[in-house]
Specification:
mainly alpha; 4 helices; about 100 residues; single chain
Length: about 100
């Protein structure tokens, strides 16, 4: 799997599987084997295993995967506006704080 390219990971239930469209568009299909007493991992464990493996590969590579400061700020403001009842006010406050600090 080439981590220099954009990556989309789809998780599906065993009984349902991928849609035909997703199956035919996939460059790579992956299955996480489980051993011992469980038939399969739950979604949270599957995501954690996948992201851990990808993070390890990225950390040991020279791929520039980190966000720049501008993108971090944009994502933070978007998150503030979507997750809080007072998101707009919090975003305005955060922007004011950054301006006061000379950013």
């Amino acid at each position: 799997m080439d981590l220099n390219e954009l990556l989309a990971i789809c998780y599906v239930m065993e009984e349902e599987g991928l849609s035909d469209e997703a199956y035919h568009m996939a460059d790579v299909l992956m299955e996480i084997p489980s051993f011992r007493f469980t038939k399969s991992f739950n979604l949270l464990v599957s995501v954690a295993l996948t992201l851990s493996a990808i993070s390890d590969r990225l950390d040991s590579s020279n791929i520039p995967w980190q966000l720049n400061e501008s993108d971090k700020g944009d994502l933070y403001l978007a998150w503030l506006m979507k997750t809080e009842n007072r998101g707009v006010q919090l975003a305005e406050y955060s922007l004011g704080q950054e301006q006061n600090m000379g950013r």
